[in-house]
Amino acid sequence: MDVDDGDPGAISGKVAIRSGDNFKFKTYWVVLKGTRLLLYKNEKSKKPSRTLWISYWEAEKFDKETLDYFKADHPESVVDLEQFMGETKGYRCFATGGLFLLKFESEEVGKEWNRLVLDVLHANFARAEMEEKHELCSSFQRIVSEQTCEQLMGRHLLLESLQSAGFTDSSPLRPIDAPDKIKFGYVKALLGSDGDENDENGVWGESWVRLYFVLLPGNVYAYEKSSDPHPRQHLCINKIGVERSEKDKKVLNVSTPLRTLSVKFRDEYQMFDWLHGLMKASKESNAGTLLANMHRELNNTLVALMTEKAPLSDDDLLVQVHLMADEDWSGKKAKVRTFSLKKGGSFVLGREASVNIFLDDSNISRAHAKIDVDVRGGCRVADLGSGNGTKVNGKYIEPHAAVTAGDVLVIGKSTIVSVGKVVDQAKLDEALAYRKQQLLDKEQRSKSVDLV
């Protein structure tokens, strides 16, 4: 714990912070500057990850009436409740982003922070304003206590679901290792922000977090990583309602009697696959109706993709590869290589030396995509399960698409392939713009890391 002599109101040290409905505390190196709490990843970081503007501060306490009601309704949870209250004992900080709970390394350290923060607040706010805030925050006691009870019941539901599935403290298995898994893999979920970035106003909000989901009969578990021993989120899905978001058709809202979880998929095909898994895992849902609607929609899309296009002439039996380096934003410096195709042949593109068309690009898979040319010159391209996917004229293909002279493919994130001798400049410009945006995003992420 350090005190800055140049600023008598400043103090710094390790603090564990929890926000919103997030059950997990995260440790930061926190510096008090005026009425701001600057949150750094560690003591050596040069730029704060987050900033909290303090509006009010008080020691953590619970509404006795709410807790007594909870104890009477759930007598088996009394011991857990007392333990939970002890675990979360700390200080409440009312800031621009909402309500935050702070825990310190010891009771003495917490009291020192409490004294300095209150001194700063009383120095910056009038007494009448502080009294008004105290009355307002006192009215939150019941709400916060009810939230505490709900979080505890969420923990109980998780433990009960694990035990009913045969996963106990002594069990060597975890849900992630269960033999009866219906579906598993990484999917994005909308959660209370637990990352390292603020929005432009320094406020914590909701963000899309990539989690590893495991779907079991009646339950879905979400882990931060596939190697984690304990899930971060749990949802009981015996009875669910599902609907696609009106704003983003790749977002699926999964509702249970207790809560709603929004998940974002890579494309409609991945959503269809997981929706089928949800239908199998639940006892009662409307997933079947949505599946039928999506099946018609996807079938129409596939028919359009598979519709025969004009065959390639003898002059157009080639592909031109534009390999984009990071500095080649405009495409003017792109090195163009040409490969000849043959009717009745298959040509695999990738970065493995044994493929037909070798591409020296770390962003593509060893065997990334395949071009098939039939004896009449009809041409199709198929993605071979690559990590970054394959686009034809700006749209991801799955599983394959018909192409003709002038069509443009984006392989991975940096290789652009034009089919035929004649290049459609508009399609090529669109593909180059896509690559430029990828590079800009990469540069922005790099700058953010360097500044932290």
From TrEMBL:
Q: Which Gene3D superfamilies match?
A: 2.60.200.20, Pleckstrin-homology domain (PH domain)/Phosphotyrosine-binding domain (PTB)
InterPro entries hit by this protein: Cell_Proc_Reg/RNA_Proc, FHA_dom, PH-like_dom_sf, PH_domain, SMAD_FHA_dom_sf
Q: Which domain of life is it from?
A: Eukaryota
Q: Which SUPFAM superfamilies match?
A: PH domain-like, SMAD/FHA domain
Q: Which PROSITE patterns match?
A: FHA_DOMAIN, PH_DOMAIN
Ranges of residues in domain FHA = 347-397
The name of this protein is: Uncharacterized protein
Q: Which organism is it from?
A: Triparma columacea
